[in-house]
Amino acid sequence: MASDLQSIVIVGAGAAGYAVAEGLHSAGFKGAVTLVGEERDEPYDRPPLSKEVLSGAWNRERAALIGAKRAAPLNPRVLTGVRATSLDVEGHRVELGNGESLDYDAVVVATGVTPRRLEQPDSPNIRVLRTMEDSLALRALLVDNEPRLLVVGGGFLGLEVAATARGLGATVTVVEPIPGPPLASRIGTEAATKLQAAHADHGVEIHTGLGVASLDATAGGGPVHATLSDGTTVDADVVLIAVGSIPNTQWLEGSGLEVANGVVCDEFCSAGNDVWAAGDVASWLHAGYDRRLRLEHRTNAQEQGLAVARNIIGSAVPFTPVPYFWTNQYDVRIQVHGQIVDIDNNKIIEGDPSEASFVQTFSVSGQVTAALGWNAARLMAEQRRQLIEAMGP
Known about the structure:
Number of strands: 27
CATH architecture of the largest domain: 3-Layer(bba) Sandwich
Number of domains: 3
Number of helices: 9
Largest sheet: 6 strands, mixed
Strand order of the largest sheet: 3-2-1-7-20-19
Helix content: 10-25%
CATH class of the largest domain: Alpha Beta
Radius of gyration: 22 Å
Strand content: 25-35%
CATH topology of the largest domain: FAD/NAD(P)-binding domain
């Protein structure tokens, strides 16, 4: 263990930040640890926000972040409702919005992302979804009155909300600017086509190849009038903007750190000069793939946070995970291990896309680089094992 480390500051009190604290505890770190969190809520997991919390199946307590309990024996100092405003890399100091300064021997940037927004009017019925409060506010608009919901963006978040909203009785329309089945670039054409059909079977209208040209609404609420890029219009009672996210790096301006679609790190997740990054905000060199990655996956936040903790105290092991994500929509669970990028071949190895369950692999130059399971959780463990073995030490 690096014996000169006495104080570690973790900026970001979400899954990645608490995973760093958990990892430090597991490694026996005895120094001071401070977590800085912009939200006032007790730490919680984000994946349930678009599903279980939004549907009402879970209350906020059930969505509590397990990693926070695992980090508790370290007894970190936790500052909630406080924003980091700047980082003095040379002086090893974090400045906070409440006027406080935190000196550190090592600092971890785990500030996550912020939802992108469109040019939109100020209306309580036009929402984004990132926080617990966002989820509860959106739920309040969807329950009881069977509203018309327009989802702008057909990514994982948009489609998960569409599925949950249908379960709450809303009439749902999804608009996605990229042509073809939504998510085809992330889960492959076969699974994307099947998923689009599942939404259609549940009454969701999905329009692809169309963007939103304008949104009109009154400041006090009421219906929202959307004009699409082809000139057609959609009237909605509620609009969710789900068009991606921006890494939270604005506070690092002037710090001297390299920032480009996140905090630029080496293969150890180090940005240099005792600065590290983990989670959605980290852009690191994946030595196994020989390319830079920035992943907005819950599993990656946990794994990367633990890896950063180990490397801070001296492990010096490259972070080379097999990426993993999942999505639950209706009675469907889709899991992907690896990266569906630049593939030149794919193969159904179990089941069939016309059936209730199937497994598909994706290859580059004869090497399997990813596997997808549609309602096939039991079979996917073996696919992950093989991908890890192919990655090598």
